[in-house]
Amino acid sequence: MEIGKHAKDWEARFGGGAFDTGPASPNHFSGGIINGEILLPSPDILEAIGSPRPLVGADIAISDNPIHVVYTGLNWQVHLSRRLYVGFTGGGSWNSSRVTTDAASGATKDLGSDWLFLLQATIGLDITDKLLVEVFYNHFSNASLTDFNVGLESVGGRMGYRF
Known about the structure:
Blueprint: E1 2-3, E2 11-19, E3 31-39, E4 53-62, E5 69-79, E6 84-95, E7 99-101, E8 108-110, E9 115-126, E10 131-141, E11 152-162
Antiparallel strand pairs: 1-5, 2-3, 2-11, 3-4, 4-5, 5-6, 6-9, 7-8, 9-10, 10-11
Pfam families: PagL (PF09411)
Protein name: Acyloxyacyl hydrolase
InterPro entries: Lipid-A_deacylase-rel
């Protein structure tokens, strides 16, 4: 097991998936997403906490009632073997709409805030030292700091390149 194996690398990830298909949000809203992230090298000051890498990412919804999300945070990775790893990100996000309504069902989704917390989990495989594939799960929530907290989720797959 190795923590922070690629802590000094830049990384770009790109892929897609679906939103509101996870276990913690109602499934009234669905559709595709385009997901992208850029990870920066970990600053030396973060070495004491496992060398997490700062990241910036986005979920761009492609659906009838889209909510787009831009997020940032710190990403930790633990290699369970030479190629297999798990990752965790904690951070914050901004979403393009706090409230949306599904035309088909009439359901309304109120996220409670334009600013939400981010929790992300990944399982990845290093195909080479530079190329990777991942499955990701993003959960955006206001942590019940407002009256409404239905959350927003995205699940999908992506490829990445380290440089």
